[in-house]
Amino acid sequence: MKHRMRTLTASTVLALGLVSGQALAEELRFTVWTGSEAHLKMLNEIAESFKATHPDVTVRFETIPAADYTQKLTFQLAGGNPPDLGWMMEDAAPTFAAAGVLMDLGSTLRSAEGYDFADYSEPALGLWVDGEAVYGVPFSTSPFMIYFNKTLFDEAGLEDPLQLAAAGKWNMDTFQDVAKTIKEKTGKWGFEFKDGQGYDSRIMHALMPPIRAYGGDVWANGECGFDKPEAIAAVQQLHDMVFKDKSIVPPGEQGDYFSGSSAMTINQISRASKMPEAGFDWGIAPLPSGPAGESPVIGQAAIVVFERGVQKELAAEFVAHMTNKENVAKMAQFFPPARKSVLDSEAFTSANSLIPAEQMAYVSDAIAKGKVLPSHEKSPQILAAMAPKVDALWKADANVEQALADVCAAIEPLL
Predict the structure, then answer these.
(1) Which interval of the chain is the signal sequence (predicted)?
(2) Residue 138 class from Cβ within 10 Å (0-12 exposed, 13-18 middle, 19+ buried)?
(3) Domain 145-295+378-414: which CATH class?
(4) What's the CATH code, domain 10-143+298-372?
(5) CA-to-CA distance for 1 and 319, rounded, in angstroms?
(6) What is the pLDDT of residues 363-404, one digit of tens each?
């Protein structure tokens, strides 16, 4: 994003229709993609604490489902009804920053009393900072972890992923083997993709962990990586698990790890908020390693203020409040922080009462070693171009190598 964050072409202005929206004088509109009661309760508590210095300000959190979030946010901007601030996913960051729709928060954050901007991990800020300008503050630098149903592993007579990881045996081959065994012995799915998606949405969440475990990537330096041997081997293994082993929930069927229908899924620690209703013993473990060794994958999200929001200065002050040390420590129970003082503290490993400290230590380790999901200024166009080619991949008789070559042919002009 170097030297491109403030570029706003005339065509972009026309496309986004950046016109000031309407809002109540002392209400901030804040878009998020969570509907979790536990998350919203915490967010509203932080908003309530803002009243200590801004007694007349209220914050209204508006939930937009994750699958629709970026598109609907774009529609709000185009319709002249921008929120004041909101969450932003890592893959959308370059697109919105290059369009000039994000406010520079740098001066507000650096001048906020006791804020300590230097406490933020410099690598974690990479997507959001250009020189002195700060276009977003990461609130979640969250690695993807394996959630497992220990009850099903016990029923199948298998060591669970946490035990396998501790013994140095948790790798892609073992992952395939235990998923297949669980399907054969219990009749339940061995694995499902994030939130039961991965074929039409969450494509990157499905493909990136195995591709990186094999030592590949999807694109880098303007070159497509889907057609490289590492990516082909990784995706072929997934394809075999879906159609030969029949251990991964296939296209057209819906699994639900949280209700006990799948033994494993991949997600971030924010989903631990759903586990009290699960009804089975469970745990989290690192992603399985591959030929490239351990390759944690990190999803990142930041809080941004929209340049044409009605109350952007007030919104920036709320960002400074929401991301101070105290509130970052509070959010750490669900969202792994980018503040070094919080991440390195014992308070972080004990922040989530649902996840034992020894399992949270794997989260800290993954943050230290992992790479953020890929992003690109043209991410929306790239994902749209990929979609029909990826659809062709998820058929029983698909030629995986050819399908991935077709993905590259579709996206390379955009890279």
Answers:
(1) 1-25
(2) buried
(3) alpha beta
(4) 3.40.190.10
(5) 22
(6) 888 887 888 888 888 888 898 899 999 999 999 999 999 999
